[in-house]
Design a protein that fits this description.
By secondary structure, this protein is of the alpha+beta class. The protein contains 14 helices and 27 strands. The strands form 7 sheets. Strands 1, 2, 3, 4, 10 and 11 form a 6-stranded mixed beta sheet that branches. It has a 6-stranded mixed beta sheet with strand order 17-12-13-14-18-21. A 4-stranded antiparallel beta sheet has the order 20-19-23-24. A hairpin with a 5-residue loop joins strand 5 and strand 6. Helix 4 packs across helix 11, helix 12 runs antiparallel to helix 13 and helix 13 packs antiparallel against helix 14. The longest helix has 20 residues.
Amino acid sequence: METIIGIDLGTSTTEAAVIRDGKPVMIMNLENEVITPSAVGLDKSGNWVVGEKARAQYLLSPENTAIEVKRKIGTNEKITLGKQSYTPVALSAKLLGYVRTYVSEYLQEDITRAVISVPAYFDDIQRQATVKAGTEAGLQVERIINEPTAAALSYGLEHMEEESHILVYDLGGGTFDVTLLEMFDGVLEVKASNGDNKLGGKDFDEKLMECLRERFREKHGVDLMKDTYAMVKLKEEAEHCKKTLSTQDSCHVLVPMIIEKGGKPLALDETVTVEQFEDMTRELMERTHHPIEVVLADSGILASEIDRVILVGGSTRMPLVTKDIRSFLNIEPSQAVNPDFAVAEGAAIQAGIIEGSIRQEDSILMTDVNPYTLGVRVMDWMTDDRMGVVIPRNVTIPTTRNQVYATSADYQDIARIEVYQGESDIASHNHFLGEFIVQGIPRKAAGSEKIGVEFSYNQNGMLEVKASILSTGKQAGIQINMMENESEEEIIDVRNWKDSPYAKQFRAIIRRTEKLLQNPETHTDPFWAEDLEDSLYELKAALVREDLEGAEEAEEELMDMLADD
């Protein structure tokens, strides 16, 4: 049996776990530590450094070190180290590669399979980017699991007989998630998830940095922002101050020489109290309320019906978090799981269920929800860019949902089905997932023909979208793997299609199509030539592959388009 590990790829730290004797066990890294800083950099020789070494290097060489990369994953933003620029995926892959190395050494076997956790409120692009990072690190990502769900799994494995409503409150280094689950008869059912991907411990650090920087500017007339190394040191002191205020009433921040003015060193010497810290971060704590309210509304469960609030993420160690939950929900939060390890343990439990090291009778049956709305672009009386919802957010998956739409133009014979994910009423403001064409619609007045659209979304992250012309039954569709980055389409050289043993029977339609494409401007439909070229390519590619069935399907598409011409 090939081992599958669980990885908590965090903004500030990363952890890994594995199942042994039916229980999750945390894995030590090469420095004999369970917690690995999520830092990556290049040393003076141009060699990669990861984890604690990179975190230490950040103080001396911030221009060659990257931290908090997770906040940028799924974006096009590049991160510069020295003279080179890297994508967040590439740097995350370096971190995951280090995890794979130390786990393989710890377990004395080559590890190539993993379950990786992500914030519940990560969108499809961020999830795809995470899977791609794992793939580049040499890992086959068996499953992406939501962090709060993973933490609930860690709790649930030891509380199989419990029947309760659980709110998982996950405040990590860079993201905030809240998920409401119901436990009953060994089943862990996710009811709703919401969150804020731009809220985490980093933001609390920045509030302290702003406070200390402003005090220093008022006292010395110097802005620390203008000195990179001063800001790195200020960040380190802010993080230390935050942790100190979790156990003490005040923190004395002292850096004897943080910057020079007129050739003379200046010291940062300030005291911050718990009350001051709570005042400066009150807006951040209030931002946690809306996601909680959304989860309660979407699930239909009252705050008074919540049996347990489980705290996850290192940032929940701040006493003001417990204080705010107690005030907002009138519930005393639970310390039932280790906030640093619960997600990695839950990911390992999911890995154990997949690999079979946790027996079915000993495991929890888990259901999840889709955190974002899924739909298609439709036209209404105001715009042709409306989001037509097919699967609302927080619907339990797997699920299949259907909607029926009408043609929008007279004599319309094709429909382009564009699939989106997101909460905006404007389709193009959401994330585009894919598209396909429905052809052969009977040419009638606008609104006369109906198109049925079906979305099927399973727990493995596969979204299947089908559309059918209700009057004829003709179908088209697309499969979208929500767990994998968009795979590059295989490009086939179709110039030698004539060498195919099946070429003769398709030669006439190919020549006819090529002749029509010589004058595409004669057709009124702007998509006609593009669609015709795509179908012609599919036919030739099928011939090159000697795929007779595929060639016949492509031929049928061409025949329909040519018949409507």
